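[job 4471] stage=fold_predict status=RUNNING
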Amino acid sequence: MEAITRTSGIPALSENTSLRYLNFVALYISQGIPEGMVLFGIPAWLAMNGKSAGEIASFAVAFGLPWSFKAIVAPMMDRFAFLPMGRKRPWVLFGQTGLILSLLALAFVPNPLQNLDSLMIGVFFVGCFGAMQDVATDGMAIDVIPEKQQARANGLMWGSKIAGNSASLALGSYLINAYGFKVAILTLAVSVGLIMLAPLFLRERPGEKILPWTHGDASEENKATQPDNWSVIFKSLYRVFSLKNSLILAAVAFCFQAAFNYLDTLLPIFTVQHLGWSDQEYSNFYATAALIGGLGGMLFGGILIDRFGKIKMLNIYILLLLVTIGTFALLENFWQNRLFICGFMIAIQIFYVFSVIGIFATAMQCCWKKVSASQFTIFMTLSNLGRIAGASIVGLVRTHLSWQTTMLVFAGILLLTAFVLQFLSIKKQVSRISQWEKEETEILEVPAIL
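[job 4471] inference complete, writing structure tokens
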């Protein structure tokens, strides 16, 4: 085994904190690259070219729909693994490869403005492989990141995703206007391909294979934790989701993401069609705001949550979001002031990123380790169902309500989120899971005692 470890001078992820952070920062940047264009850049481009709110919302739903099936993919990843390359790294590489190929296919959709059905099929497959890469990355993170580093890691990961989102939005919007749709999407595909070098050369644990045909073997830790049948996985998931606090956390994640994807889908329509901005102006303003929010999350998000507590900080962030959107809706006379709009976007992005870091860290803490990858993915899947729900009501709301009232719908969904959050007890959830783990340990020790 030692000889195998020496074949590469690069430490494994389980051995090196800096490389762990580097790997997950890279993978989350890779997730943000297609999202920046698909969720913001292309919708703004479609809005500038006269597409309706309903058509643009349908486009967002097409990308978001595959993310709702992550709960199906996650148990499959827990059950099947090529352990000589690690529990989740082969799945990460598969998802990353599919993401590159689907972006290449999307780039060659002919006449995309007049071929929205093909465009939506293309982004659906981008969403499929993006979701797969996301599940595998989160599973790998839970496997190799120590619990005491999870909040900090979540801050770095989510901030990196926002940074990738912002960079792709700014660059992609420039390219789509200057050189066309094909060049913009091909550039994103190349960027994702370069990022794939990180998981390609960084092992999960020492002694594992870099690629299937290279030297290496499965670690003893992975052999011990790998489930050998479906029954263990599904019974454990059913048991943990029977807990009240699991359901409450799922509802919080659903409502929170519904609120924000509602606003994310609305903003390009609001700025381009109502305020008269160009799609590139919107993209640049939004990218700046998102980048500031992402950097704030990377630097302070995890630290604040570690210091003051998850529930307390989530309540504060949601309150600040409500104050921000309420102020924005009341000051309608300032909407033509671009500095005012930019300030609004920056405030929203900062509080959004900090809130998401808190929700993600809470979800990780509330997971049962034996099925943590699948359980965490179910939490995230339900949050993505919320994103679809939020995007899907934009057309209906905008048809019947004024812009001012349309903005306040966002506040209403946030109020519902805050109400549900008050019933969540992380302490009770962790205590119950610890009790189960203790009982299982005692059962395993009985034969040895006898």
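[job 4471] summary: The mean pLDDT is 85.
[job 4471] exit 0
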